[in-house]
Amino acid sequence: xxxxxxIIFERKPPVAWVTFNRPDKLNAISLxxxxxxxDVLDKLWNDxxxxxxxxxxxxxxxxxxxxxxxxxxxxxxxxxxxxIRKIVEVTEKMEKFPKPIVAAINxxxxxxxxxxxxxxxxxxxxxxxxxxxxxxxxxxxxGAGGTQRLSRLIGLGRAKELCMLGDRISAEExxxxxxxxxxxxxxxxxxxxxxxxxxxxEGPPVAxxxxxxxxxxxxxxxxxxxxxxxSGVFGILFGTQDMVEGTSAFLEKRQPKFFGK
Length: 261
Prior knowledge:
Blueprint: E1 7-12, E2 15-20, H1 31-44, E3 52-57, E4 62-64, H2 77-96, E5 101-105, E6 108-110, H3 112-118, E7 122-126, E8 130-132, H4 146-154, H5 156-165, E9 168-170, H6 171-176, E10 182-184, H7 189-201, H8 205-218, H9 223-237, H10 241-252
Helix pairs in contact: 1-2, 3-4, 4-5, 8-9
């Protein structure tokens, strides 16, 4: 669905799929890819039929192997600042997107590819995947959230290892340090991703959105402020039809059916 150059967009309610479609370049980031991803997020923002968004990469070699280095050639520092800000703006939009985003990682997630993955809410990887922030080996640092989101996700010490040594780590190591939520056999990848996505899609959309916001933004303020945010959101959810349905289903010992109201 949709006419895009560097991504494939498929809308299959209740799930939408975005596939980074530059397999000849290991799905490296281009400005076109970033602009197209941002456009999809805008289109799906208020789409009530879509409850989960999945990002993945074309082929089985890479989710996204980072930025296309040709994008950097001949650019001034001022221009590069604006280019990296375009990428950051999309990752911020992903954090604010009102539905869960799952990164289905089928291969390399390096540099900007790792940064896109950690901007998602969940990461599922195959046992053949690898992760890293190799920018330091180019005389650079991660510029699209690597130093910031990794520090919050896996802790300051582990984040410094990835950002300052530039080593690749296996999917198993990424799982051990909390970088990914789940590692599955490559031959069961699609099946396991679909199972996980289906569980999310069956959940209460408003509560999922509020849980995402409370986690993403409550952890960026002092604890007492975050706790007030959490309490406020908890109270708001008592005004939803989904809360009535969820509690009724619990008392009636049946599966709830949520409508996002």
